[in-house]
Amino acid sequence: LAEEFAAKYTIKTLFDNANLMDSAAISAFMTKALDVMGSINILVNNAGIQHTEGVDTFPENKWNAIIAINLTAAFHTIQQSLPGMKADGWGRIVNIASVHGLVASLNKSAYVAAKHGLVGLTKAVALECAEQGITANSICPGWVDTPLINNQITDVAKKQQLKFEQAKYNLVTAKQPLPEMMDPRQIGEFILFLCSDSARSITGASLPMDGAWTAQ
Fold first, then answer.
1. Residue 95: phi, psi to the nearest 5?
2. Quick check: pTM over 0.90?
3. Left if phi > 0, otherwise alpha if psi is -120 to 50, otherwise beta: which for 33?
4. What are the E-state strand segments in 5-113?
């Protein structure tokens, strides 16, 4: 993809398969990115993993991994991006949180904790950077059509003896009035808006894209 984007859009691209559970690995790839790109003015923290299980049996290693990748990694990338943004007097930080940064669901304790933490981190960064031309916002999607949720849909299909698409519909509408999953492109287009001059006063916000999930 990096090579494809470089050719199609005539831009510098960089891919690094860093382990986001390792702060030293994050530091190394951020240093590399700054060397290649010159500065990081737009930072989108989008990495995430999931594990669903009750709190009483939730594996410690899964908890640690989810907190590290979904929350702590964002802290490290923000921290290392801010000096350049402050020097340039302009920056956009967009953290892809989740509807679970606003409300909870059963069997998702680590994910809910991480996403609530990411929303809080975003607010703190927004306050600290408000006078320096830097905005920080969280996008809080509901159901997004990505591989992350395929296992959940498969589990529902097996338990309810349904076809995949019917299980997908049931899973979505159990929480979200809009009976469809969002295309990832919609989030990308929203990020573009948040990076525009029209959005310069939007900062510290937790912005739902959740099909009216949290309107209930």
1. -100, 125
2. yes
3. alpha
4. 42-45, 91-96
